[in-house]
Amino acid sequence: MKIESVDFFYLAMPEIKDIGDGSQDALLVRVRAGDDEGWGECEASPLVTMAAWNCSMSHSACKPVSTSVLGQPFNDPTDITRVHQLVREQSLDLLQTDHLLSGIDIALWDLMGKKSDAAVYQLLGYDRPYPKLPYASQLFGDTPQQTLEKAMTVRAKHYRAAKFGWGPYGRGTVEQDRDHVYAAREGLGKDGILLIDAGTVWQDDVNAAEQRLEALKDCRVTWLEEPFISAALGAYQQLSLKSGAVKLAGGEGCHQAHQAFNMMDYAGLGYIQIDTGRVGGISSAFQVAQHASNQNVTYVNHTFTSYLALSASLQPYAGLESHKICEYPVEATALAREITSNTIVPDQNGMINLPERPGLGMSINPETIKRYQQKVSIQVNNHTIFQSSER
Amino acid sequence: MKIESVDFFYLAMPEIKDIGDGSQDALLVRVRAGDDEGWGECEASPLVTMAAWNCSMSHSACKPVSTSVLGQPFNDPTDITRVHQLVREQSLDLLQTDHLLSGIDIALWDLMGKKSDAAVYQLLGYDRPYPKLPYASQLFGDTPQQTLEKAMTVRAKHYRAAKFGWGPYGRGTVEQDRDHVYAAREGLGKDGILLIDAGTVWQDDVNAAEQRLEALKDCRVTWLEEPFISAALGAYQQLSLKSGAVKLAGGEGCHQAHQAFNMMDYAGLGYIQIDTGRVGGISSAFQVAQHASNQNVTYVNHTFTSYLALSASLQPYAGLESHKICEYPVEATALAREITSNTIVPDQNGMINLPERPGLGMSINPETIKRYQQKVSIQVNNHTIFQSSER
């Protein structure tokens, strides 16, 4: 059997707001082989990612990604590994590749699961999936009062953990940031697990981050996420020596497994957060999860979009019992919520379980694609080299 | 004064060969403010990079790069720093950004130099540029005999240093690789500085690289370049403990200064190689050069393309006297050689000197653009969001 076709669907909300909500658009990938199809999602700029599929070759290590995927044999999971590696080698110098590969790799695992009548976590070698404790992932309010209300709402919905991020945090004074963190703790109640996400706002400024630690410690925050950009290993490491019970979390920007290894090996992280739609798909995320397990760092998914992306992000660490927490989007747009016709919601114990179905276990909703699709066409010298797929 | 326009020119040879020659196409960037213009070059897949200029916003940290550049005040070098930082923040999650920013940043420095009647190295704070010793950078031959002949040719042209890379190296047996290295040493003569470039062929396989060390040591190779991908810090570090007099070199894949800092701080490198057209332009390359100077690692440019790229890649370390060696492309295509109407060639002492002219000191050849330009057009929902500039 061979990989016969790969198609891309760029979906977008009618209005894209200038806020940290990554669920406002989506790039879906459909892979077909034989009678089956698999689906994946890139957490990436859709247009730019599509352009990497069939651009012209620049040289032997800067080829369009299609070169390494179309027509490749596809019979067992080692074929995914081989295709993945081929893409990395032949498109080494095409930077956007890793985001594109992520969606393709996810779709290939979904397809392989359907062909083998096995869930992806089983193909990865896990005996069983363990339920994960979801944290409600949302943006800070514009004011502490709004943050308080958001936290109270989350608590009323019986979430035991919540994360607040982006928005004003880190952009105002230390006092303003403190007020937001206190408001979040108050709204969540004294027992809730509270997580704070700085969204790389301090770049690599250890001092700026350090000034926020007192409030985080006072409010018993479990982790401070992304005080710095992913590559600022030294800054993370310095801050980790001062953060005490507040552990550092990061890694969503990693687009290769090795970058995540580096954050675990050198940056003093307590939690490594991986977006399967950016790191290189399930293949790379699984490597990171294994490394985390060995290094005593807790693996957590990064997911702010669809149930398809959520399933793909949970499979790589589904079988790691002690890595208990998972990010769970509660503010996703209609588009993101409706990409699949089935959902993944907390069970009666408030836990998240993977679907007991082959592959990723999610069913794509063709109506959603029709409603939100953005049609892309790219010409070079008046020759069309890329055109959006029709359903 | 404001940044009024940014235009892109995608040039390509009529035939692109499946070899490791990055000079077969080019993406030029022209920036205009007032009566002046500056030029830069991205070392990147041209089409994908262009797509990142004016794609739709995905969210607040995934915006098209144009948002952060067009209309920005442009009066002194701090404006370049500000624009650079704004791009990094607002396009954080658009992976291709760093390659696009590189060309824009270079063009902005060129423009600022022209406006201030100063060379870029002067704007960076260097009193004077020091001549650099060029190494002739080329691909291995397909056979040891071809490698021998290439090395003899380079020697006949009076180069005192040469690098051989890519091609068959690392893809065959240890013995075949050894024969190529011996052939290169024989052709170059016993006194020439010999450098070997493995082009990331072993990914992160320390054992595979280690098997090649004996031949490299026997042939007194100065550095082994890119045995592994840039992010494989641990693999580099392990190999560095065994490589003895053969130092490790790497870094051309870095697309942020921090990634290069990490390679210097954790990977045991002797040489850090930076492509100004990938790392984020002159601003980022200069940061890396300062870090290298502080960390006792030798900075070297990575340049395999045009004289414009060569000037841009030398400016960031022009004033570091003890960082003596520079990469010098000797096999570039006609396209790359003819992008500028002036050239940078070895002086009577065989050394490379920067032009004593404002900015980057290079003059773009409009005929070359006309001859090799590839016209790109991108539509979303039948609305044109990007169109190649006419001259």
Question: What does the model show?
Answer:
The structure is a homodimer of 391-residue chains. Chain A is α/β, with parallel strands linked by helices. Chain A has 15 helices and 14 strands. In chain A, the strands form three sheets. An eight-stranded parallel beta sheet of chain A has the order 10-9-8-7-6-5-4-11. In chain A, strands 3-2-1-12 form a four-stranded antiparallel beta sheet. In chain A, helix 2 packs antiparallel against helix 3 and helix 5 packs parallel to helix 6. The radius of gyration of chain A is 21 Å and the shape is globular. Chain A starts with a strand and ends with a strand. In chain A, 61% of the residues are buried. The model of chain A has no long low-confidence stretch (mean pLDDT 96). At the A-B interface, helix 1, helix 10 and strand 13 of A face helix 1, helix 10 and strand 13 of B.
